[in-house]
Amino acid sequence: MGLISKAKDGAKSSFFDSLKEGWKRLRNWLFTLLAAYILSVIQIVYGLDHMPSWSEAGTLFWHSFLNFPAFIQEWLVSTPFELISDHPILATATAILLSGYLVLVVVLIRAYRTLNRQSELIKGADDNAALLSQAGIKARYPHAKFSSSSAAWDALKQDIMSPENKFVYVLGANGIDTFGGPSSPLFNTFETFRGTVRVVLCKPDCKPMKGRALAVGITAREYKKHIQTSVKRLRFLRSKQKSVEARYYDGQPNWKLIITSQSLWVQYYLPGGPDVDQTPVWTMSMTENQDGFYHLFHMEFDRVWERCSNDAVNLN
User: Which CATH class is domain 138-307?
Assistant: First the structure.
C-alpha cells in the first residue's frame, strides 16, 4: 500500500473515530440533563425541600410501589394531573424536553447506523479497489469493433507509442483485423513503432484453422488468405528494418493477447464463433505483484511462443 492510500485510510479512520467520540459525549450529556430533570420532578412530587439523590429517589419510589394499586392511581393519574395543575411551566418544559430528547435520540441512532453503513460501504469499496489494483484490471469494453473513434483501440495505440514501451506481442488467429488489413487499427501503428514486434498466428491449413473459419462463417481458403495478408504486412515491416518476428501455432485459439511493456489486452475466442471483435475487451496494467493478470498472461504468451519455436515464419 502506498503512502497516499495509507493517508486516506488514516483520515477516514480518524473521521469515524471522531464521530463516535462526539456521539458518546453528546449521549452522556443528554443522559445527565435528563437525570437532573427526573430528580427535579421527584422532588416536586414528594414535596421535598432538597434535591434527592438517586438512592433516596429509589427508596421513595419503592415505598410507593409497595402500595400497589394505589401506586398506579397516584403515578398515572393523580400525580401527573397535580403536577400539570400546580407547575404548568415545568410540566410543559419537561414534556418538550422528553419529546425533543426522544426525537433527537431517534435521529442520532439513525445517523449512527447510516454512518456505520457508509463506513462498511467505504471499506468494501476500498477492498474492491485494492483487489482491482492487485489484479491490474484497468478497463472493460463491450467489443473491439474498430471505427474512426474507438476508445479501446485508441488507448492501446497510446500504450504502444508510449516512449517507455519497448515491445508489442500479439497472440491472435489471422491478424487481418488487428494489423494485417489496411483498415485495421494497428496497421499504421506497427509501421511507426520502433520496438520489437512478435506475432503468433494460426498455422495455415491446419485443422483448428479450418474449424475457426467455419465458426466465423467464411471458407478455409478465405481464412488462409487473411493469414497470408497479415504475414505479407509483417514482411513489409521487416523490409523497413523493423524488429519483427512471427510464428505459427496449430492449436485451437483461446485468447487474443496484445502485450506491451506496461499493458495487456485480452479477449477470448468462442469455439463456435462469433468473430473475436464481438467479444469483450479487458485491459490490464502491469503490477508490482507477480500474480497480477498482466504477468500471468505474459507467461502464457511466452509459453505459446516457445512451443512454436519450430514453426517460425520466414519474413525475409
Answer: alpha beta
Task: Check: CB of residue 185 under 8 Å from CB of residue 178.
Answer: yes
**pLDDT (0 to 100) of residue 35:** 75
Angle between helices 207-216 and 220-239 (to 10 degrees): 110
Question: 143 vs 60, 146, 290, CA distance in Å?
Answer: 80, 9, 28
Query: Hey, what's the cell of 295?
Result: 504477468
Q: Are 152 and 284 a contacting pair, CB within 8 Å?
A: no
Average pLDDT over residues 246-263: 93
Sequence length of the chain is: 316
Note whether 75 and 64 are within 8 A (CB): yes
Helices 88-135/79-86 angle, 10° precision: 110
Contacts 24+ apart (CB under 8 A), 266-273: 266/293, 266/297, 267/144, 269/173, 269/212, 270/215, 271/215, 272/215, 273/215, 273/216, 273/217
Q: Percent helix, strand, coil in the chain (nearest 5)?
A: 60, 15, 25
Q: Phi-psi region for residue 87, left (φ > 0), alpha (ψ -120 to 50) or beta?
A: beta
Collect all residues with Cβ–Cβ distance below 8 Å to 248 and sequence separation of at least 6.
200, 201, 202, 203, 204, 308, 311, 313
**4 HSE (CA, 13 A, CB side):** 0
E-assigned strand segments in 145-251: 167-171, 196-202, 243-249
* 133-157 residue pLDDT tens: 788 889 999 888 876 568 899 999 9
pLDDT band at residue 123 using 50, 70 and 90 as cut-offs: low
Going by pLDDT thresholds of 50, 70 and 90, the confidence category of residue 4 is very low
Q: pLDDT confidence of 213, banded at 50, 70, 90?
A: very high
pLDDT tens, residue by residue, 87-100: 677 667 777 777 77
Domain boundaries, given as residue ranges, for the chain? 3-135, 138-307
Tally of CB atoms within 10 A around 294: 24
Closest C-alpha to 310, from 208, 232, 210, 203: 203
